[in-house]
Amino acid sequence: MPTKPGELTFAAPRAAKPPRHLADLSPDERRAAVAELGEKPFRAGQVARHYFTRLSSDPSEWTDIPAASRAGLAEKLLPELMSVVRNISCDDGATRKTLWRLFDGTLVESVLMRYPDRVTMCVSSQAGCGMNCPFCATGQAGLTRNLSAAEIVEQIVAGARDLRDGEVPGGPARLSNIVFMGMGEPLANYNRVMGAIRRLTDPAPDGLGLSQRGITVSTVGLVPAIHRLADEGMSLRLAVSLHAPDDELRDTLVPVNTRWKVAEVLDAAKRYAEVSGRRFSIEYALIRDINDQAWRADRLGRLLKNQRAHVNLIPLNPTPGSKWTASRPEDEREFVRRLEAHGVPVTVRDTRGQEIDGACGQLAAAER
């Protein structure tokens, strides 16, 4: 049973536990782990510097650590957690999707997207997803297990390393934004996701030193966990996958709505905005003849009018064999117009990655 609100009852099936990794541990825990190996505690900071700052997992490069100690430290603190099954690119290489095989054979995905002014990485927090949204490839696959904090961080460290080494067209670059919008419901894996975020935002050498403001956490609306996130005192961006402004339809599109209705979800998001000082985002996948009617745009506009909110409309990237498909261009334009008429800021998401099975879970499903 959960011990805190926000560590929810959407339990993952029992699975083999990933090996302990440096990125699972706080700085104090790392020092204790190093001491258990018979090494001086300050070695933990050296290993962390190599991993988080120099992006190196190769002990042969750790020249500031005695050669006799390197292999043991690497084995115990930096075990291999995942390997690349394949990389698929589009947009002249600016968008790259990676399919990972985890230590137990589980498959997850991440996507790196390079823009002229930023580099964004979309990462997975679970293998599969237990939210069962019918238009989502990951939801159709069901939940396999939660990812560890280190398995989440490793996706990002690998992306940062490839950017640094110029393996993404456009020359060396640094990650600027992380979005927890890959496979899984991040707030159903709350503790591990927050552990990963702390590793991402801890200053060097204890972490990657990324800005909290550059990290977005998405949720289908797990209300207790949204409140818990507000109480963390961080300046993350919250994104709520709403997809319908009315409970009748949302009960079908986002089944967790049968537990927490639209009004409860939006109240929690508004509180998060008040506490964090950040506006929240409403993610809304436009599905032809399902949720793209003008009256639903008006209803959403009335719900969000004068709120610290922004709507991100997503042209649906249909999954193979699905009855769901993207809205007509004219319906999309009218939806935007209606929201703007209510004074609600709205953008239409760039539809990158369609030719590489860009929607979460499509590549893993094809591999399986």
From TrEMBL:
CC annotations in GO: cytoplasm
Listed GO MF terms: 4 iron, 4 sulfur cluster binding; metal ion binding; rRNA (adenine(2503)-C2-)-methyltransferase activity; rRNA binding; tRNA (adenine(37)-C2)-methyltransferase activity; tRNA binding
Catalytic activity field: adenosine(2503) in 23S rRNA + 2 reduced [2Fe-2S]-[ferredoxin] + 2 S-adenosyl-L-methionine = 2-methyladenosine(2503) in 23S rRNA + 5'-deoxyadenosine + L-methionine + 2 oxidized [2Fe-2S]-[ferredoxin] + S-adenosyl-L-homocysteine; adenosine(37) in tRNA + 2 reduced [2Fe-2S]-[ferredoxin] + 2 S-adenosyl-L-methionine = 2-methyladenosine(37) in tRNA + 5'-deoxyadenosine + L-methionine + 2 oxidized [2Fe-2S]-[ferredoxin] + S-adenosyl-L-homocysteine
Protein localization: Cytoplasm
Keywords in alphabetical order: 4Fe-4S, Cytoplasm, Disulfide bond, Iron, Iron-sulfur, Metal-binding, Methyltransferase, rRNA processing, S-adenosyl-L-methionine, Transferase, tRNA processing
Catalytic residues (positions): E109, C360
Cofactor note: Binds 1 [4Fe-4S] cluster. The cluster is coordinated with 3 cysteines and an exchangeable S-adenosyl-L-methionine.
Annotated SUPFAM superfamilies: Radical SAM enzymes
Protein name: Probable dual-specificity RNA methyltransferase RlmN
